[in-house]
Structure formats: C-alpha cells, structure tokens
Write a structure and sequence with these properties.
Helix content is about 50%, strand content about 25%. The chain is α+β, with helices and mostly antiparallel strands. It has 4 domains: about 10-75, no CATH class; about 80-180, 2-Layer Sandwich (Tetrahydropterin Synthase, Chain A); about 195-235; about 235-275, no CATH class. Helix 4 crosses helix 6 (about 150-165).
Length: about 280
C-alpha cells in the first residue's frame, strides 16, 4: 500500500514541528521548578561554577536548564528535639531534654549548601548544642540544676550555641530546656533538704514574728506608763478640787433628796448627805 496515498495532505514539515514541540515540552517539564511558601532555592550549575552563592531563589515558578539543578530548602522556623546525658560539676550524670528553634540564613543559603550541605542540622547544629550543653551544665551542681538555675543554663546554652552557628549560616532563635532529670537518689536527697530548709525558714519567721509582737507590747506598755506619769504630774490639788465640785454639781441635779454641805469635806470638797 502507498503511504503517500494514505496521508496525502500531511506534510513532512508539520511532522517535524510536532516532534520539535514535543521535545520542547519535555525539556520545559523537566526544567520547571516550583518553590512553595516557606521555601527557598539554591541553583547548582553543572557547566558553570557549581553552586550559585550570591543569589537565593524565592517562592514561585522558575525555569532551570535540564543540566542544572535547583535544591530547595525549608526557610521557615523549625524545631528539633534532643535528649542528652551530661555531667554536673560534681560528676553526676544528668539527663537533659531540650529543643531548639532555628532556620537557615536566607541571604547565605547558597554558602550554607556549598559548605555544610542539606543535612546541616546533623552536621553543625546538633553537635554544637550538645557541646554547649555539656559545657554549661558542668558548671552547676545537681541542686542548682534542680531548683533555681534552669533558666540560667537555658540562656547560657543558647548564647554559646548561637555564637558558633551564626558563623555557619544558621539562625538560632531559641533554646528551650524542657526537662532536667536527676538520679532518683539525688533527687530524693535534694527534696528532703529543700523541705528542711523550708521548715527552718518557717520556724525563723515565727520567731521573728513573736519577737516583733513582744516589742510591740513593750512599746505599748511603756507608752501607757509615760502617759499615766504625765497625767499624774498634771493633777494638782486645785484641779482635783475643781473636778470634785463639777462632779458634785452634776449629782445635785439628781431627783434623790440630799443635803450638800459645801467646803466640809476633805481638802475643802463638798459633802453630800442624803437618805441613801
């Protein structure tokens, strides 16, 4: 059968165009890269200088030559958890449960990829956190770690870790110490000591309170004694006589029958004579 008769109106040129468009479609499909929200890209040029370190590719659609490669990173804040065994200042083993909030340095994402790679968390961040935790916890006793120094060691681990990883193109946002676990015997001993200290503080408080109450009563009594002394010194015979006369006059207003003899009493005070 003659093919020219089967496809009389199908030029070879059109077939070539179709094949060409098909290959272009395949190339575009392989070359298209979409970077999603919270992500950024690093371009690797196979026939160029390798990793492009002076540009970070943001969100959206990008066309990349088939022989190049776009490496996509998560650039939002991330969290990792780590459980560590560290030693206190007196050599006791302490278990530390901590987490870190971090993200890659967006502007230097190309350098991070070139120097540290995609697994930079395991290569740089986690080893640095462990090292800082051992260094910081080694400065404190178990009693300090259990009671009052948790915030201090959290801040110190953060500062020591940040100082190192910031030079490695990693942005450290926070270190959280979630739990400090001591050996059971040490924990029980610390709790007993804390209870005893609390009881001693309560006893001391009661003593101070009783002492202050005694001082208050003493001051009150001394004040009353001074007041009585001043009052006694001010009560002269003339004042007493005047007060007696005033009291007698008030009594004379009573309905009961009575006789008042003025000036017949002791010290010249009136005498009241009545039927009672």
């Amino acid at each position: 059968m003659n093919n020219k008769k089967l496809f009389p109106s199908f030029p070879k040129l059109k077939l070539g165009w179709i094949i060409g468009l098909f290959f272009i479609f395949i190339i575009l499909t392989k070359s298209a890269t979409t970077i999603r929200s919270g992500q950024a890209g690093v371009l690797y040029k196979t026939f160029g200088n390798g990793v492009v370190t002076d540009k970070t590719y943001g969100e959206g659609f990008h066309i990349v030559a088939p022989w190049n490669k776009m490496i996509v990173y998560e650039v939002r804040q991330q969290e990792i958890f780590e459980k560590m065994s560290v030693l206190s200042s007196n050599g006791l083993e302490i278990k530390l449960d901590a987490s870190a909030w971090f993200q890659p340095d967006y502007e230097n994402l190309g350098k991070l990829h070139q120097e540290k790679g995609e697994n930079y968390v395991d290569r740089v961040l986690l080893p640095t956190i462990r090292s800082a935790a051992r260094s910081v916890v080694g400065r404190y006793t178990p009693e300090q770690l259990y009671s009052s120094k948790r915030d201090a060691i959290q801040n110190e681990i953060f500062e020591e870790t940040k100082k190192i990883v910031s030079k490695q193109y990693i942005q450290l946002n926070e270190i959280l110490v979630r739990d400090v676990t001591l050996p059971t015997t040490i924990k029980d001993a610390i709790e007993r000591k804390l209870r005893q200290e609390q009881e001693a503080l309560e006893y001391e408080f009661r003593l101070v309170k009783a002492k202050k109450e005694a001082e208050r009563q003493k001051i009150d009594a001394e004040g009353k004694a001074v007041a009585n002394k001043i009052l006694s010194a001010s009560l002269t015979d003339k004042i007493l006589k005047e007060k007696g006369i005033e009291a007698t006059l008030e009594l004379s207003k009573s309905q009961n029958s009575k006789v008042i003899v003025v000036g017949s009493g002791k010290n010249g005070l009136p005498i009241i004579l009545g039927n009672q």
